[in-house]
Structures are given as structure tokens and as C-alpha cells.
Design brief:
Blueprint (H helix, E strand, L loop, with lengths): L3 E4 L3 H12 L5 E3 L11 E3 L5 E3 L10 H10 L4 E5 L2 E5 L2 E4 L11 H16 L8 H9 L1 H6 L1 H8 L21 H9 L11 E5 L16 E3 L4 E5 L4 E4 L4 E3 L2 E4 L3 H4 L8 H8 L5 E9 L9 E4 L8 E3 L1 H4 L9 E9 L12 H12 L9 E9 L10 H14 L2 E3 L11 H24 L1
Parallel strand pairs: 1-2, 1-13, 2-9, 6-15, 13-19
Antiparallel strand pairs: 3-4, 5-8, 6-7, 10-11, 11-12, 14-17, 14-18, 15-16, 16-17
Helix pairs in contact: 1-13, 3-4, 3-7, 9-12
The structure holds flavin-adenine dinucleotide (FAD).
């Protein structure tokens, strides 16, 4: 039996393992950490809180994956109708803001509508970056007030530095009629690309991976440090070296590429150009069960340190002790555009202060638990360097027959389901390699 190696035990790694398992192959999954799950890992704290590594919900529309994840938790999941809102300068606005202008001051409302009407009379020239796309889609006032501000916080750089090939359904383009209706009435229909979502009743998001664990040999605390494509060996920081016949990797490309024996300099340079945000996820437990009636909220103001706020207790009540709530705040940085300027734990104080300032934590609430998690890789930044650099890196990996998958192997803005599917696809590629080498 040829040796199938998978690097990384997140959604992509398990997707690859699942596909190989279907062919009667038991791959080895190498993971640097002492637990599996990657970004979908969940942690249970002594104080009674269960926290994911950043807020995670499953909103896949893929029926096969829905069934697989449901079977993994033996049908024990919560199904919720997503409630989403926005906070801007003291106003709570339904989501998406462009369809719910009834929540903003009148002068701003009028200015946004006039601008959008004007914009629609204009010829749109060639769109070269995200800022131009936003101005053309929403008019200047809305673009400058909401998404351009949000972009600086979430993607850590200005919209003019981003391409448009990641947008897809993520940013809703409302018609003038929808905008006007939403300005005069509070009954705008929901148009978010996430409507319903699922979440395990017990154990946090990682429970969705439970049934896949038996489909591979999982080797934890195996941090790859060298991949030799000629000798077909993997060397790990714990001193172990193993040979492989076929390999799929979900390790972030800027980390993987320099580990490869004989990699050309231009490929290393291209990998260095791939930008990604990092995130400090601060979770705050309070002794009141209902501080916010939303599964998540977007925060636009530059002087609020977090960009998104989620409520793990509304994903599953089992995530918090009875009578409590948890607020999970995401603060974004990036090496390339906005380096982290403090220790991750320093973010806790800032987040708690801002939660009090916006009124989500009230003076009478007691903060009973806080923690900060630092995720070095969060969202791929689709800056103008990405496409060319990625072509070079992916081309090289294809040459040396290292299949890539997952958010940081594809280097794309993909969700858990898409990461799983990309793992399955990478497995198919290595099965093809295996077929070719067996017949030659
Ligand atoms: C804050 C945040 C919130 C999100 N919310 C959602 C959501 O609500 N719903 C959703 O569908 N998606 C969400 N996502 C996206 C989702 O997390 C990813 O799409 C998915 O988890 C990526 O899985 P992956 O296997 O590709 O990568 P990862 O989960 O990062 O897995 C890669 C694995 O490789 C391991 N690794 C790295 N280097 C080495 C090495 N040298 N040697 C060995 N192992 C190594 C890592 O430890 C990790 O386990 C969110 C992402 C973030 C950042």
C-alpha cells in the first residue's frame, strides 16, 4: 500500500482523509499541535465555557456535507436562523446596512440615496480594485461610511489595495428600490448570504469532525520542518523523518514553501508576497444571559478595537454556564499592513472597555471570564500582489506533486465546507498520481 500523507488536521486535512478512506486507504495525518481541528478546534475551560478558535458556524448548502456533519454529531445539532446586525457611531442597524438605512440619521440616509441615484446614471469604467467596485455599487457616501471603513479594520488595508476576485455573494448589491424601501421601513427582507446555520449541541464546532477521526492515523505534535520532494521524505521538529509516496498539504503556503528542499528563490519570494491577516479573538463571559440579540454584529468605528462580535451562547447554550453569556470579539492585524502592536492578552482590557462603551456590557454586569486566543493565519488578504504570486507558488507545488488544499493551501477566502471539499479534491489528485505511478 503506498503511503499517503496529509499535512494539517483541519477541515481540509479531514476532507482529504475522508476521500481516501472511501477508496479503502488509511492515510497518515500529521498535525503540529497537540489537538486536531485546526481553526475548527474547540476548547473547554474550567469556568464552564466552550470556545472555538474564532466564531464558527456551519452554513453550508451542500446537502452531502450537511448529512456528514450531522451524522458526526449523531444528529445532535442546533439549527438557527441567523440574526445579524451592525454598530455604527451609537446606532444599531439591521444587516445589511444598505438595505436597512432606517437605522441611520436622516441626513446620512438622504445623502446615501442621492449618491446612489447619481451613481446609477454614470457609466462605470473598468473596475481595477475593491474601492472602485464599492463606489460603483453603492455610491460614494455609503462606500466611504460603511464598507471602506470596515475593510480597513477587517482586511487591515484600504479598499484601493484589494482586488475584487473574492467578493462573490459576500457583499450584497442592493437595487435603488431596495435601498429606498429599507430607508423608509424597518421590514426589509433578509438578504444575507447566511440565513440558517448549524452548530453542534455539545463540545463546540470541532464535534462536526468526530466521525472522521477514525478514518486516518492522526499523529499529533508532528510539526513539519522539511519536505524533500526528490527523496519523498517529511522531517518533523520532533526528530522523526518519514517517507511518503503521495502527499497533500493544508499548511499555510508562506510556511510550507521555504521548507521544501531545492525550492527556487523566486518561488520563496512569491510565497513571501502572500498576505494574510492575523486575529486576536477575545472572549468575555458575563453573568447575564442576553447582552446582545444577534449571532454576530459588525463594528465599523475605527476607535472600537474589534471588527466583529459573536455570541457563542446563542450557537449552543451548552457553550456557557447557565445564566451566563459569552461575547467573542475579533481584533485584526497583519504583518504586511498593520502589525500586532501588543501582546494578545493586552487586547482583553481594550475589548472589555469597548464593550462597556457601546453598552453591550452594562455597569451592573460582572465579567466572570476572559481569554485571548491568537490565530496567526486568519483571512487571506486579496491584495494586488496575490494572484501573480499564487500562480508561481501553485505552479511549483504542482511540478513537485505536492497537492494543496484548504484555506491556506488554496490561499483563498473559503469556509469550512469549501476547505473540506478542497481536501477531497486534493485527495483525488493524489489518487490520480498514485494511479499513474502504479501503471507506469
Ligand atoms: C475568525 C474566523 C472565523 C471563521 N468562521 C467561520 C464560520 O463561521 N464558518 C465557516 O464555515 N468558516 C469559518 N472560518 C473559516 C474556516 O476556519 C476555514 O475555512 C477552515 O477552518 C480552514 O480549514 P483548513 O483545514 O484549510 O485550515 P486549518 O484549520 O488552519 O488547518 C491547517 C492545519 O495545519 C496545521 N499546521 C500548520 N503548520 C503545520 C506544520 N508545519 N506541520 C504540521 N501541521 C501544521 C495547523 O495546526 C492546522 O491544524 C473562519 C475563519 C476565521 C479565521
Amino acid at each position: 500500500m503506498p503511503k499517503f500523507a496529509i499535512l494539517g488536521s483541519g477541515m481540509a486535512g479531514f476532507g482529504a482523509a475522508h476521500r481516501l478512506h472511501a477508496e479503502g486507504i488509511r492515510p497518515t495525518l500529521y498535525e503540529m499541535k497537540s489537538h486536531h481541528g485546526g481553526h475548527t478546534a474547540s476548547h473547554r475551560f474550567a469556568e464552564g465555557f466552550v470556545l472555538d478558535e474564532g466564531p464558527h458556524i456551519s452554513f453550508t448548502k451542500n446537502e452531502r456535507l450537511k448529512d456528514l456533519f450531522a451524522e458526526s454529531v449523531e444528529q445532535e445539532y442546533e439549527e438557527s436562523q441567523a440574526r445579524v446586525n451592525n454598530y455604527w457611531r451609537g446606532h444599531w442597524i439591521d444587516h445589511p446596512a444598505q438595505c436597512n438605512l432606517h437605522g441611520v440619521p436622516d441626513d446620512l440616509k438622504v445623502q446615501i440615496i442621492c449618491d446612489l441615484a447619481k451613481q446609477q446614471q454614470k457609466e462605470t469604467g473598468e473596475i481595477e480594485n475593491y474601492e472602485q467596485w464599492l463606489r460603483a455599487s453603492f455610491g460614494d457616501t455609503f462606500a466611504e461610511t460603511f464598507p471602506m471603513e470596515y475593510t480597513k479594520k477587517y482586511h487591515t488595508t484600504a479598499a484601493c489595495n484589494l482586488s475584487t476576485d473574492w467578493i462573490g455573494p459576500r457583499v450584497y448589491q442592493a437595487s435603488l428600490e431596495e435601498v429606498v424601501r429599507g430607508a423608509v421601513s424597518a421590514n426589509a427582507p433578509g438578504v444575507h448570504y447566511i440565513t440558517q446555520f448549524r452548530y453542534p449541541k455539545q463540545g463546540g464546532f470541532v464535534s462536526f469532525l468526530k466521525s472522521f477521526l477514525e478514518q486516518a492515523d492522526l499523529k499529533l505534535e508532528h510539526k513539519l520542518k522539511r519536505l524533500d520532494p526528490r527523496l519523498k521524505t517529511l522531517t518533523f521538529e520532533n526528530g522523526v523523518t518519514e517517507s511518503y509516496e503521495h502527499v497533500a498539504s493544508s499548511i499555510p503556503l508562506p510556511e510550507l514553501v521555504p521548507m521544501i528542499e531545492g525550492v527556487p528563490r523566486e518561488v520563496v519570494e512569491a510565497a513571501q508576497k502572500l498576505a494574510c491577516s492575523e486575529v486576536v479573538v477575545v472572549s468575555v463571559g458575563i453573568d447575564r444571559p442576553d447582552p446582545l440579540d444577534a449571532h454576530w454584529s459588525y463594528f465599523y468605528d475605527a476607535d472600537i478595537c474589534f471588527t466583529r462580535l459573536s455570541t457563542p451562547h446563542l450557537q449552543s447554550r451548552e457553550n456557557v454556564p447557565a445564566g451566563h453569556a459569552c461575547l467573542m470579539a475579533e481584533c485584526y492585524y497583519s504583518d504586511k499592513y498593520r502589525p500586532l502592536d501588543c501582546q494578545p492578552s493586552d487586547c482583553i482590557e481594550r475589548v472589555v472597555a469597548d464593550l462597556r462603551r457601546v453598552g453591550v456590557i452594562r455597569p451592573e454586569d460582572n465579567v466572570v471570564f476572559t481569554t485571548a486566543m491568537h490565530l496567526k493565519y486568519a483571512n487571506v488578504i486579496f491584495d494586488l500582489d496575490r494572484a501573480k504570486a499564487l500562480e508561481i507558488v501553485h505552479g511549483f507545488l504542482e511540478e513537485i506533486k505536492v497537492a494543496y488544499c484548504g484555506r491556506y493551501g488554496m490561499w483563498a477566502y473559503i469556509w469550512t465546507d469549501q476547505s473540506f471539499l478542497s481536501g477531497e479534491k486534493a485527495a483525488e489528485q493524489i489518487l490520480q498520481h498514485a494511479g499513474t505511478s502504479a501503471s507506469s
